[in-house]
Amino acid sequence: MIDRKRLLGISRINPAAVDTASMDDHQFTEYVQLLVEFTELIPEQEELLKTAVEHLDYVSNMRCLEAIRDMLAKIRADDLAAWCLKQIDELKKPVDEKIMDRAKSKAETARFLTALSTLSIDIQMALYQQPSPLPGQEQNTPEQLEEKAAEKTILAVDDAPFFLTALKRCLKGVPYKLVCLTSGAAALSFLQHHKPSLFILDIEMPNMNGFELAQKIKQSGQQAPIIFLTGNSAGQNVRKAIEAGAADFILKPINDEFVLNMISKYIER
């Protein structure tokens, strides 16, 4: 059973344009189907867009952005539609007025796709994850919050040191203790004597992937939220993560502001 209120909580869907409360059952079912179709079609469009940028294929690049814009219009995700329009306007400039910088173009496309994948995962979380009530949050002074934060430990597990380094940079100056490990076995050893307040797990790791590690974490009695670090927003991947106990996702490449907001959302509960 899809919770209508949860759909309105999706950060990048425009609640002013999507009033699910006033929809009858048929209208609501149709809207949900649009959301499902969006999450199913976006991975293919993402790959096409990456290929177009890699090969400097202006026509295919524009075609992909137009297709994505159409899908965003149907689900009424106004902020990302504006992003897409901005990219299309840039591509429409005459070729002789600019030289397409492949590295810059790839970086801009990566940021765009991260936002797009975030929207897709937000939708899938609303569609497939069982709702759980949030505990009441106490009103704390800044000093009390900082004292509480100092007691919080975040365990990050990723076999790629690059992403662990990015997390360290992101959390520099923030009063959380970040423990970075590169394997599931090391994480389970750590958990024998520690109880983190939050887990950040990469999905694709050798020997023990993130799903398997999450299962073992739950079996050990740990109750802290699990956030999966991934670059894959495909429906099968997201649903498998939800089944493994995902509270949320952080998309690669890492966006510092997004990560900080995500962590504060869960670690201060």
Question: How do you describe this structure in short?
Answer:
The chain has helices at 4-8, 25-54, 58-75, 78-91, 102-128, 142-150, 161-170, 184-191, 210-219, 235-243, 256-267; strands at residues 153-157, 177-181, 198-202, 226-230, 246-251. It is of the alpha/beta class.
Account of the 3D structure:
By secondary structure, the protein is an alpha/beta fold. The protein has a 5-stranded parallel beta sheet with strand order 2-1-3-4-5, sandwiched between helices. α10 (235-243) links the parallel β4 (226-230) and β5 (246-251). The protein folds into 2 domains: 4-128; 142-267, Rossmann fold (3-Layer(aba) Sandwich), CATH 3.40.50.2300. Helices cover 57% and strands 10% of the residues. α8 runs parallel beside α9. 29% of the residues are buried. Residues 95-99, 132-140 and 143-150 have low confidence and may be disordered.
